[in-house]
Amino acid sequence: MQFSKEDVRQIAKLANLDLTETEVDKMAHDMGEVLTHMEQLASLDTDLVAPMAQVLYAAPATASLRTDEVRERTRLGTADALANAPLSGAGHFKVPRVIER
Amino acid sequence: MQDISSLTIAEIRSGLAARKFSALELARAAIRFAEAENPKTNAYLTLCPEVAEAAARAVDDKLARGEDPGLLAGVPVAVKDVLSTKGVRTTCASRLLERYVPPYDATAVERLKAAGAVMIGKANCDEFAMGSSNENSAFGAVRNPVALDRVPGGSSGGSAAVVAQGTAVASLGSDTGGSIRQPASFCGVVGVTPTYGRVSRYGLVAFASSLDHVGPFARNVEDAALTLEAIAGRDELDATSAFAPVDSYRAEMKKPVSGMKIGIPKEYFEGLSPETGDKIAAALDVLRGLGCEVREVSLPHTPYAISCYYIICTAEASSNLARYDGVRYTSRAEAASLGEMYRKTRGEYFGMECKRRIMLGTYVLSHGYYDAYYLKAQKVRNLIAGDFSQAFSEVDALVAPVSPFPAFRLGEKMADPMQMYLSDIYTITGDLAGIPCMSVPCGKTREGLPVGMQILTGHFEESKMFRLAYAFEQAGGVA
């Protein structure tokens, strides 16, 4: 399967991923090669096979449900939540301006 | 002080009880040893002497008060750098998270600590656990301590290397397509991928959530079994965590194996290097000698596993890695608009393999291709899992090689990603089916490179797997 540089740019846009020209070249080659290998799956008849999204679930489907209350173990204060932020202020993550006034 | 590179967990327990050494002495010796060894292998990304000493002092205090210090008391351990460790940076071997310090511990780490283990550092790995050689680390490849010109395997290469070089007695890794078993086989140590859901994924930085497993490395079967026992079990913070009770693997593994039926999947012996094949054949002779009945079985959908796996794992990875957009996690590229910030941050900070998987995943999930790729792969996954169910209706366990060949040279496969992906053929199937599987040392090639034997059993049959592994090891294994 051929994967063009234009295809690469289109997918990179969907993935919000900047690629250099060198990376676009390499990606076109690599994706073409991998996707060619993946074409073999088309030869398998799977019309009567159910998709498998979850490996196992021996418990009832509702077993993981719980009452909606704060768990001490996962309580995270604002300061901790923001500690790894590249830029924060006034208790929020700060990002470049989204809406022009 | 004994040579810590050969200490077992049982020896540490008895040494501490007899006051031959303190946990603090052991921790300091392990840190000193790790500092001295690390320039050779680059297996640790971070050493945490203060954290280790504090944990060791707590163990010594408990011993002094006559309290039970825990199953893994004083045991120096390392943790793969994709598992969150409170207050200790967790980089995922990515420049993107170079300065990221998690505010909480992964459940597996929390349970290790609760059992008295002493974390001495964070182990190098492939960036976001994506790779089969540990060469995709943004902070440099890991060298195999057995042969320094070779890769240690991946993605948990550092976790395998630290156990092989002896700076940690046990370690934690993660396995999505073979990332525990393959490095364990390349470095000559024991590596265990438990049943999906057996160990909580909470705090494991997500790569492919339906395939990610946390599991231990150790130098012998008993230590691996003990470490798994300490971290396994239901965790309400991981909705896919299993409810099934955890066996006492230590006790179960010592039961006899005579009469066990072992299946040899014939598809796993095609394209195998001759020396690896010879070692597995010798291992089967050992198992026959222990009274096991060995017969051939077939897992007919094996040839489709690579395609199936790399569709599902890249799809899930592209979704999971969407969170690294420059807003929350330490690294951000300067940009005038929000969209540009996302694109530039990801472009600047992700390595090539992560980019490749984000791209492949985005493509297979994109409009018009979903049915042909992702949905198709999920159906094929069902067929692959069905192969195993069929096999386990006939036999108790499967025995196979871990990798088609022993550790390859650094750089040997980096130019061709497809060749690297194909090397995962014998390990990805276990992850797709979510069954427990492990690598047990199985002799060395003429060049001195370790070979690993893989044992696979049905869901939640870790005890049976450990029983075979332990009997094989006690019988002397394969030279």
General description of the model:
The complex is a heterodimer of chains A (101) and B (479). With 101 residues, chain A is mainly α. Chain A has a domain at 5-43: Histone, subunit A. Chain A contains 3 helices and 2 strands; from the N terminus they run H-H-H-E-E. In chain A, a hairpin with a 2-residue loop joins strand 1 and strand 2 (92-93). In chain A, helix 1 packs across helix 2. The longest helix of chain A has 18 residues, at 21-38. The mean pLDDT of chain A is 91. Chain B is α/β, with parallel strands linked by helices and 479 residues long. Chain B has a domain at 4-252: Amidase signature (AS) enzymes, CATH 3.90.1300.10. Chain B is built from 16 helices and 11 strands. Chain B has an 11-stranded mixed beta sheet, sandwiched between helices. In chain B, 62% of the residues are buried. At the A-B interface, helix 1 and helix 2 of A face helix 10, helix 11, helix 12, helix 13 and helix 14 of B.
Tell me the name of the CATH homologous superfamily of the domain at 4-252 in chain B: Amidase signature (AS) domain
Order of helices and strands of chain A: HHHEE
| Estimated structural class of chain B | alpha/beta
- Beta content of chain A comes to under 5%
Our measurement of the CA-to-CA distance between the termini of chain A, rounded to an integer number of angstroms, reads 48 Å
